[in-house]
Amino acid sequence: MSIINYDDMHSFLEELARPEFDVNFLEGKISENLGGVSVVIPTYNRAPYNPATQEGKYNPLMWCIDSLFNQKKVDIDNIIIVDDASDDFTKDTIDAFDDNRLVYLRNNERLGSSISRNIGIKNSNSKFMYFLDDDCLSAPYAIFGGIFTFNHMRNIGIDVGAMVLPVYYRSTMPTKIRKMTEIGKIDFKEGRKSGNLDAFPYEHLNNKTFIDDDKKILTPIELEDLNGHFLCSKESIKKAGGFPTFFNWKNNYTEETEVAVRLLDAGYKIFLSFDPKFHTVHWRYGTLGPLGINGTDWKKDDSVSLTEMARVCEEPRLNTGNRVSAKEWAYSRILSFIVLFRRDYEGMENFIRQTYHDFVEGKNPDFMKYDNLDISTRKEIWESAVNDGYRFIESITKQQDTPVYKIN
Question: C or N terminus of the chain, fewer CB within 10 Å?
Fold first, then answer.
């Protein structure tokens, strides 16, 4: 991991205070709208309150949709909500908007976010697609930034398949710095994967470059991975075969990484537009975490401020989104990485050994949060995930749904 000293962090905080990173910096600097986009949101129980009551304003799904209707300088063709058999006020919340751009589709049973997203792709007609979770709030120019940067990379001859946008956990600013070698990289030979898609690249602290000097839009960096919040062309996501449908674990962990590998296999490149003014706040509704909102509350004058939203989201809940218990989460993370690293047997074996060291033996508590899981429970989880992983790989290798990553 990068060692960031005090001077680096001081430069980081100074950098974030620059006016070009304010969410409304582009106000008055753009003359025309960019092309249309379809937004796809799989949802499950993110509307616990009746929208006809005062409490209805605290539904995360309502915040998410509202932030999309408030996107600037883009044409929202439609927002496709795929309801994964919710038993709350999801349909009522959507109806409350009374906007024909909202498309409501409902699964009769729980199918998971991957299949739900594929249903959304099938029902979209736009050139661009924007995927995000149902407990997210996008800054006013987020989608504009994604399309603008995507078009720029295409115009200079790069066949970009997806543009990842910055997503911060209960924050309106990045809270960590990482070297570019530690952001969105996958090493199949070693069985390692780095996330950090919410980080600010260390190399860009004092050496910024812009794809547009007037709009001060930062030059994106290349990735090998995706998170659940990205913009792509419908052409690229269809060519990549959409989202994988072979998952059998509840929270669909690594589903976006499987899409990333498919895009790379199809000859596309993936980029991260880490420009903070294009951020999305990810609430992780129902997860007890950092209290309040970090950074600037740019909705503090609205009926529900970001600070209030954070408070609502801090109450622990399980029957919502992809929330699972600590044991299920640990199991699915290990299992999903084994399935991901199937593309290189040696790397997969290395991951399995390293996971025993980090998770079961507790030598690396940063690997995974396993509070209240004793060593015997952790060993039981590890053994179950490994055994199920081997069986699962054997069952899916015969399907066409498992593209092989081309290792150079």
Answer: C
CA 405 to chain centre: 21
Count CB neighbours of 181 within 10 A.
11
The answer to whether 389 and 338 are in contact (CB under 8 A) is yes
HSE-up of 244 (CA within 13 Å, CB side)?
Answer: 25
Residues in the chain: 408
Q: Quick one: fold of 6-282? A: Spore Coat Polysaccharide Biosynthesis Protein SpsA; Chain A (3.90.550)
Per-residue pLDDT tens digits for 216-251: 999 999 999 999 999 999 999 999 999 999 888 888
DSSP code at position 21: G
User: Kindly report the CA angle at 173 between 172 and 174, in degrees rounded to 5?
Assistant: 140
8 A C-beta contact, residue 324 and residue 251: yes
How far apart (Å, rounded) are the C-alpha atoms in residues 65 and 138?
A: 9
Token reading at 117: 């997203």
Element (H, E) at 129: strand 128-131
* 3-class DSSP assignment, residue 391: helix
Decide if 65 contacts 88 (C-beta within 8 A). Answer: no
Beta strands in 220-312 (DSSP E): 221-223, 230-233, 269-272, 280-282
Q: Where are the domains of the chain?
A: 6-282, 326-396
C-alpha distances out from residue 116 to 105, 262, 339, Å = 9, 18, 21
- The rounded distance, in Å, linking the Cα atoms of 135 and 147 is 22
Partners of 75 in beta bridges: 36
> Within 10 A of 316 (CB to CB), how many other CB atoms are there?
9
Instruction: Kindly state the DSSP code that residue 341 receives in the 8-state scheme.
Output: G
